[in-house]
Amino acid sequence: MNDVQSTVPVMRFGAFEVKINSRELRKHGMRIRLEEKPFQILEMLLEDAGQVVTRKALREKLWPDTYVGYEHGLNTAINKLRDLLGDSARSPRFVETLPRLGYRFIAPVIRPGGAAVADKKMLLVLPFESLCGDDEQEFFAEGLTEEMISHLGQLNPKRLGVIARTSAVQYKARKKSIGEIAAELRVDCVLEGSVRCNGQRVRITGQLIETRNQTHLWSATYDRDLRDALEVQADVARQIGEALAPQLLAD
User: Fold this and answer.
1) pLDDT band at residue 195, thresholds of 50, 70 and 90?
2) All residues at 6 or more sequence positions from 24 whose CB lies less than 8 Å from its CB, including other chains
3) Burial, 123: exposed, middle or buried (Cβ in 10 Å; 0-12, 13-18, 19+)?
């Protein structure tokens, strides 16, 4: 990791401002008292915003000589950080948990001058809607959504940020407009879609929408046999990823 203190003295996200050199956290200009370990965790997360900071990396940097009680110390520090940010593990807006792996900062981070870190574009994959009318295909649509988020998140994490599944799922079946969702999550594009069934055949439709003017950038339909649901989910996610890469990663 780079020395964030020497390169990025101030960073902003949501209503918060972090001054690295003076080790201050402010909300709407008001200083919030944050203990050393939670602040160091926040610093590491902001430095690699959009990417996974592993539990191993946190231990090696913040608890290099501690083995007994390390897990408890890390969990306590993360909980304190979330409490001060008004965040939650179940529906994160800032700090996403990747079970047994680590954590990822998922909100847009602004550096001095107003430029987002690495000019990263933000994408939301809305839960694909099942139009089949049975629980089995509902599970298929949920699995497809998760596969899509995972695949798109690996395209180019430094240039494309994908909102976590736990944040995206809260919009399932909600009657909010693309504009309202974009304002809440600060995303540039939204991928939405549906699954229709005919026996063991499924038709998957996807649409990419630009939130600035709520216009369609791309759409496609995929017909598949459901003999192997996992293979179908992975194949469609891969094809959609290949089709969207030129749009999402364009300069």
Assistant:
1) very high
2) 18, 31
3) buried
What percent of the chain has a predicted confidence (pLDDT) above 70?
92
* Residues contacting residue 40 through CB under 8 Å, at least 6 positions apart: 61, 62
Q: Is the pLDDT of residue 64 over 90?
A: no
DSSP 92-155: -SSEEEETTTEEEE-S--B-TTSPBGGG-EEEEEPPPEE-S-SHHHHHHHHHHHHHHHHHHHTS
**How distant, in Å, are the alpha carbons of 32, 101, 135, 248 from that of 25?**
6, 26, 46, 32
* Token pair recorded at residue 160: 């494309």
DSSP 166: H
Instruction: Work out the angle at residue 32's Cα, subtended by the Cα atoms of residues 30 and 35, and round it to the nearest 5 degrees.
Output: 160
**Which residue shows structure tokens 């913040």?**
62
On whether the CB atoms of residues 182 and 190 are closer than 8 A, the answer is yes
User: Is 44 within 8 Å of 23 (Cβ atoms)?
Assistant: no
CB-facing half-sphere around the CA of 231: CA atoms within 13 A:
5
Q: Is the pLDDT of residue 240 over 90?
A: yes
As a whole number of Å, the end-to-end CA separation of the chain is 25
Q: Work out the number of other CB atoms within 10 angstroms of the CB of residue 43.
A: 18
Which residue's structure tokens are 């890469």? 245
Report helix, strand or coil for 24: strand
Helix (H, G, I), strand (E, B) or coil at 36: helix
Q: 198: which strand partners?
A: 201
